[in-house]
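Quick one: structure for this chain?
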Amino acid sequence: MSSGKPIIESNRGPRSLRKNIRFAWGSGLQELRKRFDDSVLGGLWLVINPALLILVYWAVFDLIVGIKFTDPTTGREVPFLAAFSIGFFLYLTLAELMNGASGWMKAKRRYVLESDLPIWAILGGLVARVFIQYIFYTMVVLGVCIAYQLSTVQGAFLYLLASFVVFLVFVGLAVIFAIIGSYFGDVKELLPVLNRVLFYTSSITFPLTLVPPTLKWIPAMNPLTWPVELMRDLLLWGVRDPLSHIWPALALAAGIWSIAVLLYWRLSDRIAEVV
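Got it. Here's what it folds into:
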């Protein structure tokens, strides 16, 4: 990782966009470097920490509770680790973006007040940091599925494509919560609780076939369920028409970004007055 500090430069001139992007990326790298400054293993904790969490959930839900995932088309049983890791890393990514974004502007108050950086560049530091982690998460998921010989080359490619689309959706949500959280500090306190509710009521730790018919509306309304099921469809089940699964995700991304851009356009100029 780069050891250089983010450079705050003038936001004027033909190269301002490139400078702002460079600041966002450098800021994200610096955030990660600071996180592991006093660690012997350094960036390896990006993999070790979630891997340890996965083993805990595996021991509880697979070995003790006995949750089983099966291929809906063949009925073949799929290892719990493979099905669970797909959803778990999506949850970690969404939770880090939402929790971080809700208090990001207040945490970066000095940049907001003392620099001429646009709000999107300051928020871009969080996005860059989580994106780097998301790359590690994606590689771990692919490694697990390949180790179990569960995915094809086409499935892995489609999974990577869908991962990018889902990340766009999550970033759009982060922009929304970053702006709202700048005005209402309660958002930062409520989101960790909301994230846990989303985790346990989605299909991350169990297949949808285990949900009683009268309660199926709960995971169906959970915004974490659809990306989890999308990724499993593409990577594990090998759907026949994968693009028909990705197009709705693109439409959702467009809708969320429309809201995010509208909020940004209307409220971003006033953030310096409330942080």
